[in-house]
Amino acid sequence: MESRSIRYSFSRFVVVGAFGFLIDASVLTALNIYFGVNVYLARAASFSLATLATWWLNRLFTFGESSSNEGRTREYARYFATQVGGALINLGIFALLMHQFRSLQPWPVIPLTAGAIGGLVFNYTLAHRWVFQGGRINE
Fold first, then answer.
1. CB atoms within 10 A of CB 98
2. Can you tell me the distance from the alpha carbon of 98 to that of 95, in angstroms, rounded to the nearest whole number?
3. Neighbouring C-beta atoms of residue 134, cutoff 10 Å
4. Rounded alpha-carbon distances, angstroms, from residue 131 to 17, 22, 50, 74, 104
5. Helix (H) or strand (E) holding 48
6. Which among 52, 45, 18 is positioned nearest to 30, based on CA atoms?
7. How far does CA 72 lie from the centroid of its chain?
8. Which residues contact 14 (CB under 8 A, 6 or more apart)?
9. pLDDT 10s digit of each residue in the chain, 139 long?
């Protein structure tokens, strides 16, 4: 039963993450291209908005409301920290593979994919065990 509910919540986590990516990419593009915002400021805004949206969606659809009394602000702070950690892992794996395996340079999508998988596993594990620890997994 436990592995089934983990597979189910992981699948929902991936779907929510894909939605978050669309928000991230759309906001980044709109702010940078259409409004002339510096790309790094636009990226900070797009990441923050995508993280807020995925926290809310994961809270509602993936893990359920937390039974913790600590409040949503602390839960979101843990979620945001987790997402930053996952992003750093993603970038680290990408950079490591690009540097160590020069033959991958014509195909950066391979290190990008490896980084995304590493970040995803990190983010899901911490979301499941630390961020939403008191929540029920929605099935």
1. 16
2. 5
3. 14
4. 16, 23, 17, 9, 35
5. helix 39-57
6. 45
7. 18
8. 120
9. 567 788 999 999 999 999 999 999 999 999 999 999 999 999 999 999 999 999 999 999 999 876 555 688 999 999 999 999 999 999 999 999 999 999 988 899 999 999 999 999 999 999 999 999 866 655 5
